């Protein structure tokens, strides 16, 4: 195990989060206004004047080291390795260290309390074009519910034994407030399990349900094939040989051995394109991989809403 002097630790603690993100995760950095930034994964995590605060979780820090430990879940020594001069790593390596650190610990998923009804969840998701019957079916199967006290959408993933192991929350107010529940195991990200041979992969649960709605609109069937949400993607390492597969994808392909084809429906942006390229590289020779980003808009929900508008326009013309 490496040893760090007090001087080395002080040097690492002087690295602010903005500098770290600009160097290691440039596609993760989002400019809000002035000298204020947030991250693409957590838009309630604000960075300003050398400090950062994750408002939705109620804590913050003064350095990149604090961020890697508190937000990414790394152990102190792993975070020091990343930020010290002798071992500069890229974001995919940070992600894999975080996942490994979490997987080695006994974690308890802290699911938000359920509301008595799912009115706000249904209102919000149907407002984004998602089919009402698909939403209700997910609620019936425990894959989706409305939380208290904030009435967020809670998308639930289950492990191989049928126990809830992952939860992702999304605000129903229109505010871009989202994140994973404490104790979530990303290996079991939100998914629709079926025995088909083609696995459809998405960045988010809403994209997954949007694609399911499109399939129902086109064919009348929405769950003939298994579908998986990755819970977001990271830009891969510059050295692609060292980049890792998203842990949810790796886990599902190991568990469902009937899968022989991967269809990628990631976002039409830089991070989505790079992630798709990396996945195709890693799976080459083991699976037939199709890169099928949405044909319109940034993501699958943009495409769904485009289709809904076209359908309404045709109905108005006929009337």
List keywords for this structure.
about 325 residues; 11 helices; single chain; about 20% strand; alpha+beta; 2 domains; Dna Topoisomerase Vi A Subunit, Chain: A, domain 2
Can you walk through the features of this model?
The chain is an alpha+beta fold and 319 residues long. It has 2 domains: 6-88, DNA Primase, Chain A (Alpha-Beta Complex), CATH 3.90.580; 113-318, Dna Topoisomerase Vi A Subunit, Chain: A, domain 2. It has 11 helices and 15 strands. The protein has helices at 6-13, 17-24, 64-70, 76-83, 91-103, 119-127, 132-140, 205-219, 247-255, 270-283, 300-318, and strands spanning 29-33, 36-39, 45-48, 51-54, 59-61, 113-114, 144-148, 153-158, 164-170, 178-180, 191-192, 198-202, 227-229, 261-264, 288-291. Strands 1-2-3-4-5 form a 5-stranded antiparallel sheet, with helices on one face. A 5-stranded antiparallel sheet has the order 6-7-8-9-10. Helix 8 links the parallel strand 12 (198-202) and strand 13 (227-229). Helix 3 runs antiparallel to helix 4 (76-83). The model is unreliable at 86-97 and 101-105 (pLDDT under 50).
Topology:
Layout lengths: L5 H8 L3 H8 L4 E5 L2 E4 L5 E4 L2 E4 L4 E3 L2 H7 L5 H8 L7 H13 L9 E2 L4 H9 L4 H9 L3 E5 L4 E6 L5 E7 L7 E3 L10 E2 L5 E5 L2 H15 L7 E3 L17 H9 L5 E4 L5 H14 L4 E4 L8 H19 L1
Parallel strand pairs: 12-13, 12-14, 14-15
Antiparallel strand pairs: 1-2, 2-3, 3-4, 4-5, 6-7, 7-8, 8-9, 9-10, 11-13
